[in-house]
Amino acid sequence: MTSPYGNSSPTPNDSRSGENLEEFERLESTLPPPLRRSASSLLEALSLGGNTPVDSGSSTPIAQHENRFSSSWLNSRDSVPSSAHVPSHGAKAIPAHVLSDHRSTSPIPMPKPKFNSEILKPAMNTKQSSTGVLWVTERASEYGFDPQDADWANLGQGAPEHGDTVPGSFKRPTSIPITNIGKEYAPTAGIKELREAVANYYNDTYRQGKPSKYSYKNVCIVPGGRAGLTRIASIISDCYLSFFLPDYTAYAEMLSLFKNFSPIPVPLNESDNYEVHLEYVKRELDRGVSALLTSNPRNPTGRCMTRRQLAQLHDLCRQKCLLIMDEFYSHYYYDEGCNGSSISSAEFVEDVNRDPVLILNGLTKAFRLPGWRICWILGPEEYINALSSAGSFLDGGSNAPLQYTAVDFLEPVRVRNEMKALQQHFKMKRDYVVGRLSKMGFKFTPGPHGNIPNSTFYLWLNLSHLPGKLSNCLGFFHECLHEKVIIVPGFFFLINPQNLSKLEDVIWYHYVRISYGPEFEQIVKGMDGIERILERYNCLPYKRH
């Protein structure tokens, strides 16, 4: 029987099919246990019916050929220990003859995870697992990915292009002067000069005409966003902390490590593109929540709250709830003509020392310097003092020479010009990606409840209209690897600390996150790779030339 790709479909004994099955088993077995179980359940449902490509030589769904693996997996499924751990490192590289396969067949296998129970790991917490970006990078490395390999398109990494590639942007430093004082440990709250520069920038940009102003005492410099979140998690105690789903994948591990508060996930609705409605916040406050963590603009959906929504959120939380606002993408904002403007909670704080609001941002995203690990937290002095103390035992503080160099970056007029250049460039890349994917048959709707991102450099892509394996984020990821394209499966954005909540129904099996952060040439290669995948499945609305 002929496959839709022009080659003969293999028989059940075809060795290449066995290799494909073994390859997919290896891929699925590296997932964290909750996702591994959920992925298996979804693949089972997919195999028993649903959206499958049709063989061009007959009316028979391809899935009838592909589901030959299901019975053996189903028979052994109950014997698989659900709590077993599969290390995410050290997996064997994919055999070269499998990678050279022209992908003439693409089975929907029913994987049976493999576990090595003989390896002892004394004192190791084996429940820890890789975050989404780390996991996809590990898997891609098994397929030959090298960050220096120009043939790969890494659309999974949550980082912007960092070179002198953005028209109108200031030149990134190529050398750093180190004075004698720069050789010393920096204070765990950061050097005073940089703290003052951050406070001045926020006052000039967001607090014009307000009587209450930030000072250096309201700023804590931290070695990266994760370090900032970890410091915050260490100083809050005896409370319920709510957060919305989907959101930044690294929240999961951070929230699961600390036992001094109880994290409560709040799923948002797909129907309005996961907008944070204020009635959700009020409901959480009414049931005793006293801390709220959210990203704004949001990762992975690429949407940003309006100024009116932010003002109302602050009014709701001012008296009873700590707002933890992750604003790392606040300058990637495209709704006001790409003129360098941005949205921040700092605009809606009434009193900088009374309003319980902690704002995280830094050089990593807005200044396109992720490797510097220079970030900051703004908040009331008492919180900042506690965060400084936490840094003394958690991370030791940020790099001193880089802090001194960063002071000049934060001159307000310079920042505005830099953000204008950034917004115009990244909006161009967003429009290119949306345009290419629209031609491939993906649906995009504009407006406040649409799925076109108005901020960040992420696209939350719905796969549900695609045939068979491609409608599943793990299957789509698997095919992307064979085209040297990296994306992040949607189920990694289910943040379920300690797996205490039964949230399987809201896992985003049919979504992937695509980053248009990399340089334009990588984005073009990534779109070309996705186009080739859809062509193999006969689901392009046009013929490729």
TrEMBL record:
Keywords: Aminotransferase, Pyridoxal phosphate, Transferase. Transmembrane segments: none annotated. InterPro entries: Aminotransferase_I/II_large (IPR004839), AspAT/PAT-like (IPR050596), PyrdxlP-dep_Trfase (IPR015424), PyrdxlP-dep_Trfase_major (IPR015421), PyrdxlP-dep_Trfase_small (IPR015422). It holds the Pfam family Aminotran_1_2. Residues 1-38 are annotated as: Disordered. It comes from the Eukaryota. Residues 16-28 have a biased composition (Basic and acidic residues). Residues 152-497 form the Aminotransferase class I/classII large domain. CDD domains: AAT_like (cd00609). Its cofactor is pyridoxal 5'-phosphate. Residues 1-15 have a biased composition (Polar residues). PANTHER family: ASPARTATE AMINOTRANSFERASE (PTHR46383:SF1). Belongs to the class-I pyridoxal-phosphate-dependent aminotransferase family. This is Aminotransferase class I/classII large domain-containing protein. It comes from [Candida] anglica.
